[in-house]
Design goal:
Elements lengths: L1 H29 E5 L14 E5 L1 H4 L8 E5 L7 E8 L4 E3 L10 E3 L4 E5 L9 H4 L2 E2 L3 E10 L19 H5 L2
Antiparallel strand pairs: 1-2, 2-9, 3-4, 3-9, 4-7, 5-6, 7-8
Length: 172
């Protein structure tokens, strides 16, 4: 009797560990579901939208300008942020407001990306904390899942701040 109970218990624990490992690998290397909160990505992503963030682009270094990414906050590593990639390493970024008389620029250093929210007036992003290391990127948002009426791929940036580099336009 004791052996049978012990055997079933150990068998259950073995299956639990196996499924836990499979789930961990799926969330770490394939993707995850993310509930977004806050106004920084409006109108593209609004409060409580559910998106799917895939991880393969990050692992294969396939993040591009215009992609929306989930990244660890440079201020609080316990918090994730959802922002659009505006610049990649080596890009020149205008850091001043459109109404500023004198324009200021910065270059994105190697191994970093420049992130901004679509709602520029209500977003804490690289304009506040500078470029973030590529290693803080958790995944690329590829689908909006909820609400159902807006299910599908995400739209282009409403701010039109993504500027093609000369080498980008030459390849078109």
């Amino acid at each position: 009797m004791f052996r049978r109970v012990l055997g079933r218990t150990l068998g259950f624990m073995g299956y639990t560990i196996q499924y836990g490992c499979i789930a961990h690998c799926a969330f770490e290397y394939i993707g995850e579901f993310v509930v977004c909160s806050g106004p920084s990505m409006e109108p593209t992503i609004v409060n409580h939208d559910v998106v799917f963030s895939e991880r393969m682009s990050r692992h294969l270094f396939k993040i591009q300008k215009g992609d929306i990414v989930i990244a660890k906050s440079p201020f609080d590593p316990q918090m994730n942020i959802c922002k659009r990639v505006i610049g990649l390493e080596g890009d020149k970024i205008c850091t001043s407001a459109p109404s500023d008389l004198f324009k200021t620029h910065t270059y994105v250093p190697m191994g970093h990306v420049w992130l901004e929210g679509d709602n520029l007036r209500n977003s804490t992003d690289s304009r506040n904390y500078g470029p973030i290391p590529y290693g803080l990127i958790r995944g690329r948002v590829c689908l909006k899942l909820w609400p159902l009426h807006s299910f599908g791929t995400l739209s282009e940036s409403p701010t039109k701040r993504i500027i093609k580099a000369q080498s980008d336009s030459d390849s078109d």
